[in-house]
Design brief:
heterodimer, A: 478 residues, alpha/beta, five-stranded parallel sheet, 19 strands, globular, B: 205 residues, Aconitase, domain 4, binds iron/sulfur cluster
C-alpha cells in the first residue's frame, strides 16, 4: 500500500470520476453551506434551467454577511433598515423555502457566521468535502475535512449536482514545532506563517498544518489557523483529526451517536497522513520563537512581531515589492521604522469567522475583566453565532464586556466586511481580530491592524497598540 | 455562454501587485441579487471620489484608455474573497482578458466560467506589456485561444497555459453545469456506494 497524505485520502474518497488527461476530476460534496451574498445568482440559474437542488439534506443556509448586529427591538426582532440588504435577505428566505433548504434565519437561535455554525452543529466532520461560496470555507479543514471556497457559478453546480469539477491541487506541509508562550496564540502562528510565505505563497496548494504546536491547540485555535489558509493563497488548509477533534464533535446535534459515533471515530482514525507520504513542498516554523503578531500594511502578508518596527521600502531590492510597501504605508499613514506599540487606535473589533468563538471571547474577557475600555475608543464584541452569544451570556462574559464599556452585539460578520453598516470612518485605525486588512475592507478609507483577540483586548483597555503579554503576566494566566 | 476564439483588444495597465477582489469590487456592492450594473463598481474606491465623481488621474478614467478590453495587473491578481462579482464587474466594464504573472486560484476559476480569460505570462513579457501600455495607450494585443497565443504589438507571440477542459468549454461555449448534469448516473452510483455523512434536516433552524 502506498503512503498517502490526509488530503489525498479525502480527495480519493470523493472521486465520482478521477482526473484524466483532458478532464478535471469530478468531486462529490458532502456538505454545502450557503449564505445570502454569494447565492442569489446561483438560484436564479437553477430557476432559469428548471433545475432542483439535488440534495437539500446536504445543504444548509444561514444569513451573516449583510445582517445587522444591532440590538433587538422590544419584539425581540433585529431590525433591518438597509433596504438593499433587506431585499437580499428576503431573496435568501424565498430561495431556501422554494428549494427545500434548511435556513438559519436572522435572529433565530442557530443563526451565525457560516464557518462558525457548521462546526458548532457538528456538521463539520473529519474526512468530508465541504464547500461554500466563501473563501474562508478553509476553516472547516481544522477537522481533517477538505473544505474550500467556490464562486457563484460553482454554487449553482453543487446545488444542482452535488458535484464540482476540480484539478488536483499540490500539497504543502506546514510544520510548527515547539510550544507557544503565554500571550501568544493560534492567530499569531498563522499571521507569522503568512508573513513568511506571502499572500500568494500558497497558490495552487492545499496546506496540511502539523507539528507539536498545532497538536497542542484547541479546535478553536485550529479553526483560526485553517481559516486564514486562503490569506496565504491556499484554497484549503487541513489538520489531521485526533482526540481533540473527536472530543469536540461528540454530542453535537448533527454528530453520530452511540455505536455510530464509535464507528465514525474508527474511520476518522485512518485519515491522518501515513508515515512516508510526501508533500510537494514543506515549510517549518518554531513556535518557541513566536511573539504576538500584528499587521502594518494592506494585506495579511504584511505582518510582523508586535515589538518590531514598520519595514522600510527603501531596503527592498525588488521594485514592485518596494512600490507595494510604499503604497501600503501611504494608505496606512505609517512611517518606515516606526514602532506600532503605543500607537493610538479608534476602534477595536473582536469578531469574525477567524476569532469569534467562545474560546476567543473567553480569552479577550480575561484581559478586559475588571478594566475599562480606554476613553475615546469604540470596542465592538460580535459573537460568531447566536449559540456563542448565548453561551457567553450564560458565563457572564457579556457583562464583563459591557461593564468595561464595550458594545455587545448580535451575531454576524459585522465589521469584518463592513457590508451591514458596522464600519470604520475614513482615516480611522482599528485593531481587528478578523482576517483581512485590505484597503477599505472595514469601511472605505479605514485602516486595519490584524491581531489576536488578546492583543485586541489589551489595546481596547489601553487605547494604544499593546503587547498583550504585559497585561497577561499581571494576571494569573493559564 | 458565447464561444471565444480570438480577439484583439486595447491594453490598459493597473500596475499594482496583489490586487484583491475587495479592490476589484468593494463589499458594499455585494448586496445585489443579480449581476446587472456591476461594471460601474469596478475598482470603485480607486476610481471615484467621495462624492461619486470619477478621479481624473485613475487610469481607467483617462479618455485615452476608454474601450480597453485587456487589463494588465501586477503579480497575484484576484487574491482574497471568492466573490464572483469580481469577474462580473470586469466583464461588465468590457474586459475580455486579464494578464498577470499569476492569479489567485478562485479568481482564475471564476473568470473562466464567465468568459474572462486569465492569461499568465512570464515576468519579462509582463514588464514589457506594462511599459507598452503606459507609454502608448493605443497598444493592442491579440489573443488566440485555440493556439493559446498572445500576440504582442511587435508581432512576438507568447503562449499561455490553460487547462484543456476550460479551453474546450470556452471555445465551444459549453457550460460546466451542463457537463455535470450529464453525469447523473455516475453521481447516483457514487451516492449508492457512500452513505450520507450528515443530514442538515436534523439540525434545521
Ligand atoms: S466573518 Fe468576515 S471573513 Fe468570515 S465569512 Fe464573514 S465576512 Fe467572510
Amino acid at each position: 500500500m502506498t503512503s498517502k497524505t490526509l488530503f489525498e485520502k479525502v480527495w480519493e474518497n470523493h472521486l465520482v470520476r478521477p482526473q484524466s488527461e483532458d478532464l478535471p476530476a469530478v468531486l462529490y460534496i458532502d456538505l454545502h453551506l450557503v449564505h445570502e451574498v454569494t447565492s442569489p445568482q446561483a438560484f436564479t440559474q437553477l430557476r432559469e434551467r428548471g433545475l432542483k437542488v439535488r440534495r437539500p439534506d446536504k445543504t444548509l443556509g444561514t444569513m451573516d454577511h449583510s445582517t445587522p448586529t444591532t440590538p433587538r427591538n422590544q419584539f425581540g426582532v433585529i431590525p433591518v433598515t438597509d433596504m438593499q440588504a433587506s431585499a437580499q435577505l428576503d431573496v435568501m428566505r424565498k430561495n431556501c423555502a422554494d428549494f427545500g433548504i434548511p435556513l438559519y434565519d436572522l435572529g433565530t437561535s442557530k443563526q451565525g457566521i457560516v464557518h462558525v455554525i457548521g462546526p458548532e452543529q457538528g456538521l463539520t466532520q473529519p474526512g468530508m468535502t465541504i464547500v461554500c461560496g466563501d473563501s474562508h470555507t478553509s476553516t472547516h479543514g481544522a477537522f481533517g475535512a477538505l473544505a474550500f471556497g467556490i464562486g457563484t457559478s460553482e454554487v449553482a453546480m453543487v446545488l444542482a449536482t452535488q458535484c464540482l469539477l476540480q484539478n488536483k491541487p499540490k500539497t504543502m506541509a506546514v510544520r510548527v514545532d515547539g510550544r507557544l508562550d503565554a500571550g501568544v496564540t493560534a492567530k499569531d502562528i498563522i499571521l507569522a506563517i503568512i508573513a513568511r510565505i506571502g499572500i500568494g505563497g500558497g497558490t495552487g496548494y492545499v496546506f496540511e498544518y502539523m507539528g507539536e504546536a498545532i497538536r497542542g491547540l484547541s479546535m478553536e485555535g485550529r479553526m483560526t489557523i485553517c481559516n486564514m489558509s486562503i490569506e496565504g493563497g491556499a484554497r484549503a488548509g487541513m489538520i489531521a483529526p485526533d482526540e481533540t477533534t473527536f472530543e469536540y464533535i461528540a454530542g453535537r446535534p448533527a454528530a453520530p451517536r452511540g455505536a455510530d459515533f464509535d464507528a465514525a471515530v474508527a474511520q476518522w482514525r485512518r485519515l491522518p497522513t501515513d508515515d512516508g507520504a510526501t508533500f510537494d513542498h514543506e515549510i517549518r516554523l518554531d513556535a518557541n520563537d513566536l511573539v504576538p503578531m500584528i499587521t502594518y500594511g494592506t494585506n495579511p502578508g504584511m505582518g510582523m512581531p508586535i515589538t518590531a518596527n514598520v519595514p522600510d521600502p527603501d531596503k527592498l531590492s525588488d521594485l514592485s515589492q518596494k512600490q507595494a510597501l510604499d503604497k501600503a504605508l501611504r494608505y496606512m499613514d505609517l512611517q518606515p521604522g516606526q514602532q506600532l506599540l503605543g500607537k493610538p487606535v479608534d476602534v477595536v473589533f473582536i469578531g469574525s469567522c477567524t476569532n469569534s468563538r467562545i474560546g476567543d471571547l473567553r480569552e479577550a474577557a480575561k484581559i478586559v475583566r475588571g478594566r475599562k475600555v480606554a476613553e475615546g475608543v469604540r470596542v465592538m464584541v460580535v459573537p460568531g453565532s447566536q449559540q456563542v452569544k448565548a453561551q457567553a451570556e450564560a458565563e457572564g462574559l457579556d457583562q464583563v464586556f459591557k461593564d468595561a464599556g464595550a458594545e455587545w452585539r448580535e451575531a454576524g460578520c459585522s465589521m469584518c466586511i463592513a457590508m451591514n453598516g458596522d464600519q470604520l470612518a475614513p482615516g480611522q485605525y482599528a485593531v481587528s481580530t478578523s482576517n483581512r486588512n485590505f484597503e477599505g475592507r472595514q469601511g472605505k478609507g479605514g485602516r486595519t491592524f490584524l491581531a489576536s483577540p488578546l492583543t485586541a483586548a489589551a489595546t481596547a483597555v489601553t487605547g494604544v497598540i499593546t503587547d498583550p503579554r504585559q497585561l497577561v503576566s499581571e494576571r494569573e494566566y493559564a | 455562454m458565447e464561444p471565444i476564439k480570438t480577439f484583439t483588444g486595447k491594453v490598459v495597465a493597473v500596475p499594482v501587485n496583489d490586487i484583491d477582489t475587495d479592490q476589484i469590487i468593494p463589499a458594499r456592492y455585494l448586496k445585489v441579487t443579480d449581476k446587472a450594473g456591476l461594471g460601474q463598481a469596478l475598482f470603485s474606491d480607486w476610481r471615484y471620489q467621495a462624492d461619486g465623481s470619477p478621479k481624473p488621474d485613475f487610469v481607467l478614467n483617462r479618455p485615452e484608455h476608454q474601450g480597453a478590453s485587456v487589463l494588465v495587473g501586477g503579480h497575484n491578481f484576484g487574491c482574497g474573497s471568492s466573490r464572483e462579482h469580481a469577474p462580473w464587474a470586469l466583464v461588465g466594464a468590457g474586459f475580455q482578458a486579464v494578464i498577470s504573472t499569476y492569479f489567485a486560484d478562485i479568481f482564475r476559476s471564476n473568470s473562466l466560467k464567465n468568459g474572462l480569460l486569465p492569461i499568465v505570462v512570464d515576468e519579462n513579457t509582463h514588464r514589457q506589456l506594462l511599459s507598452l501600455a503606459e507609454e502608448d495607450p493605443t497598444t493592442q494585443v491579440t489573443v488566440d485561444l485555440e493556439s493559446q497565443t498572445l500576440t504582442l504589438p511587435d508581432g512576438r507571440g507568447v503562449t499561455f497555459p490553460i487547462d484543456g477542459f476550460s479551453k474546450h468549454c470556452l471555445l465551444n461555449g459549453v457550460d460546466q453545469l451542463g457537463y455535470l448534469l450529464g453525469l447523473e448516473q455516475e453521481t447516483a452510483a457514487y451516492e449508492a456506494g457512500n452513505p450520507r455523512r450528515v443530514d442538515t434536516a436534523l439540525v434545521a433552524g
